[in-house]
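Below is one protein, fold included:
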Amino acid sequence: MRLRRAFAIVAALPIALAAYGAWSAVPAQRPALPLAWTTLPRASITADAKRRELVLELPSVDLPAGAAHDIPPASLGEFPVNASIYAFHAELRDQDGRLLPADLLHHMNVMDPAERELFLPIARRILASGRETGEIRFPWLLFGARVRAGERIIANAMLHNTTPVSYRGVRVRLVLSYVPDGRPWPFFSVFPWQLDVAFPVGDKSFDLSPGHSERSYEGSPAVDGKIVVIGGHMHEYGRTIEFWDVTTGTLLWHGEPAPAPPGEASPVPLGRFYGLTGIGLPIMASHRYRVRVVYENPTGHTIAAGGMGVVGGLFIPRRGAVWPSAEPSDSLYQLDVRHFMGLTGGGMSGMEGMGEMGGMDSHDHDHGSTP
């Protein structure tokens, strides 16, 4: 094991030394959270130094049988240590600590309200997991998403119990593997990012028209940098999801889901832009980028909330670049936070035209016939 680890370190050094001097971010000053947020329910984040794991756990809830979409209140948590996250997975436990079926979790999201997203002035999503996500893991020697002791996050989850069994004291947990602060690795501090066809704010699912349909969204990043990992998420009947440099007309990444059983979405394989010869796909703030998703719905009718299209991954800002802090007074930021916390009624009513703000545009093109 030690020889294998030593070999991994030696093998990665040429990559790290070639890129480290050019790619390193300067953190921006973090704004204070509004006092009202301190009244949110508390999520616990505990550290196991021996296992080098952080466990983020939401307050327990009872999950009745047939609860199609149960959304507990958003919770406020605080990281207890300085660390770099390199792997995570979600799980559910009942009041007796028993592991529950993964299908009960529709999704879990974690955001940092003090920093903005790469492509939008909304609170930055730092972790997300769903039914088909499984464990997310990247090389601990190369990449880590940094967290700081005292850094506050807001987390929410949606549970989905269509079974005839009720569960009591259900706790949604996110288990994070980390490298302690003070180590010479990971060599690169990465920032999770995303670009969604349903940006800028509101529900990310959309009604899926019969036949062929497409949706897309465009935006420019806040800073220059390099994408090192990219992946995508679609629902059933999704055919392709793409990431384009609109300025140059270049297709940067194309993803297709693997075959899956009827009624289930399948993960889209990750794209990795790193190897022994170099690291990262360059992204420039002066360019515009587009996420595009394509569906083929053969059912002959519209599927309510049947579509979704998002790309995301890991991003390394250019050396000297300052990752922008959030602007809580921004209208998009406020709408997004309200939606994340379940204060908007779960819809986009009254938000038509928001895609024009900030020089960003959303597009959707449906080519199906009515049933």
User: Anything to note?
Assistant: The first helix runs from residue 2 to 20.
